[in-house]
Structures are given as structure tokens and as C-alpha cells.
Amino acid sequence: KVMSEEIELDLDTKHLFGLLSALVKKNFYGDTEITNSFILQEVFSGSKLSSEDAQRVIEECEQVLKKAANLNADPNTVAELSREVGFITEEHSLVFSGVWRKEKDKIHKSLYKQSVSGSQLKDVQWRVDVATNSKGGTRVGEPVAVIRLDLQGDDNQDSLQFKATAESVRQVLDSLKAIEQRIGNHM
Fold this sequence. Notes:
single chain, alpha+beta
């Protein structure tokens, strides 16, 4: 268990939902107006928990949500993670699962946006050009790929266009394969 069972959480499902929703906004969407003091006042005002125990509840619930985000967990896993906290009941774990089901995709997008800086690749377009003799139509040069990468930044769009020989394309593909393997090792 993450925490001893000495705390008896007296929040109903509505208040727990409010707590978890506030923690999601605070931790994943960057809402600076939501503080622990605000949560204590708004969520725990009718609770019999001491402010220290309420603070521990907030911290434990935050840890469950953060762990779920790091794992990119599904709602059932979030329910299991919440049950590891000693004071979370089966009914409470269903609230965790429901909040996660509702917020998971938005949390994932928010974390992705926070972790990616600079431009992002939005589209790739390409063609192969072959230079020919204008009189006889015979090939006079090596075919080249003309590649255009469309990039999207925070407040701008750019395109990068370049030419590549067959050998250059092979080198890029080898590099991309190595990147794919490295990413796969971290999943």
C-alpha cells in the first residue's frame, strides 16, 4: 500500500470527483488558480479530516494521477493504482477511473504539447525527378527525390524542400530505422 490506512476518507463521490478534476487542471493543464489551499477550502470544507490529513489525501491523489499519466494508463489500471492507496474505497476507485476515462486523451495531448518544443512535422510530400535530354528524351542524369517537409511551430508554418540521391535516401532511411529502434527500446 502507498499509504497507511489510518486516514478514513469521508469525501463523497461528488467531492472526490471535484478533487480529482481540480488536480488534473492544476497538474496537467497548468491552471495556476488552483492551489492546495483552494482545494482544501472548496473540497474539504465539509470534511472531518484534519488539514494535514486532507493535504496527505491531495498528495496521494496527485501521485496516482501522475503515475497514471507517466504510464499512459487505461481507466482500469488507474482504478487499480488508486486502490493501492490505503484510504481509497472501491467506490472511490470508480471515480478515479471515470475521471481518467474523461480526461486521458486531453492529458496526453497536454503532456505531449508541454514536452515538444520547436517545430513539428505535419506533412511529407515527395516526387522523383529524372533529367532527360530534350531532343531524344534519353536520361542524362541520376534520378533525385525532391522532398518537402511541412513544419508547424507554435505560431508559424514553414516548409523545407531539398533534393536527395538514392544513396542519400538510403542513409536517411537507415537513420530513421535506428531512431525507431531507440524509441522502441523506451516503450
